[in-house]
Amino acid sequence: IHIDIDPASISKTIKADVPIVGPVESVLTEMVAILKEIGETPNKESVASWWKQVDEWRGDRGLFPYDKGDGSIIKPQTVIETLCEVTKGDAFVTSDVGQHQM
After folding, report:
1. If you write DSSP's letter for every residue of 6-37 in order, what string do you get?
2. What radius of gyration, in Å, describes the C-alpha atoms of the chain?
3. What is the mean pLDDT of residues 77-97?
4. Which residue in 22, 90, 97, 99 has the most C-beta neighbors within 10 A?
């Protein structure tokens, strides 16, 4: 599935099996509505297994291991970490590298 607001980016480098053009908020809202309509629900065992793995990673090395430096430069990790703190985990934070040429 390739979701992009720019139709010229869809299948530009790698052919998308499911191309979807639109703003991510409306696309994801519609996708969730469709999943609810057809009665699709997450597999609880798979989700629990995934969170167990995430917790192990957090325990092993922390979720955001990085050199915070002297604070004169704002690092991307600092932004993500701060957003997680401010939203108290009640948000999905995404990022990409920009023109990643999918």
Report:
1. -GGGTTSSS--SSEEES-HHHHHHHHHHHHHH
2. 18
3. 84
4. 22
